[in-house]
Amino acid sequence: MLNVVFLRENSLFHTWFNIHSAVEIVFINNLITSVLKLVVLLPYLVDFRFDIDLKIVKRLMVFSLPLLIAQVPGILNETLDRILFRYILRDSAMETLGLYSANLRIAMMLMLVIQMFRYAAEPFFLSYYKNEDAHTVYIKILNYFTGVLVVMAIVILGNLGWIKLFIGKEFHSALFVVPWLIFGNIVYGIYYNVSVWYKITDLTKFAILLTSIGVIVNASINVLWLAKYGIMVSALAKLMSYFCMLLVSVLLANKHYKIEYQWRKIIFGLMLVILTYFITLFVHNLWVLNMFVPIFDSVGLPTVWL
Asked: What pLDDT sits at residue 141?
């Protein structure tokens, strides 16, 4: 609200602070907001006592520092394909980046759901693992979550003819990467669920290993084949990097914190997504495709959930 008021031309704010730069105004508004928050919180800070328990600090560092380090290869894995365009494709880098990024936004709908799930699920995973039925609950969570992603993927693929209108005609030539990016996001969602084991067992050092494997696979595939086969390679590289991370995580989990996930149900859901993709290759009538979407969803969701 302050930004809206003070960014207006001829505002008294400009005169009082002798400021004409919008950037400076935004910074000052943020400062005012922070001061007001502090004033509101002062009654609650009166009885606050700053005390450090070195044992707890040490445990926190051992647990969280590897997760912090793992963020570096994790973020790199998300953006590596677009970074490599500049160095591998060179002359066509900007055009390719525009095509790829526009279609990536369609697949990002699944990633937004995954991110929302992470904020809610992680505290629950870490607080519930001591319960007797923890394994059963974790299995159900993976089934439910995968079911949601499968339904979303089928809906997006079955309605891609409509959804593509949101990104502009000039980007439609790269729509072929969307299914593979969607597959990759589903695998990443499964990987996140399965990888709860290293947090529960305080073996967070393995997060660095897993994310590093993802970066190596992603980079290797792009470097070897991006120049020859184009952006399809980048979509497949991301899918393969997530799959390798998932595979290694499952193998390590079987050793340190084994959970008997219902992989047949998960694979069945993924097969429905793949089948939807192949149908879209041969059936181009949107009304016919929309007949398959509710059928596959009504079959896939109960199968994965129950």
From this structure: 94
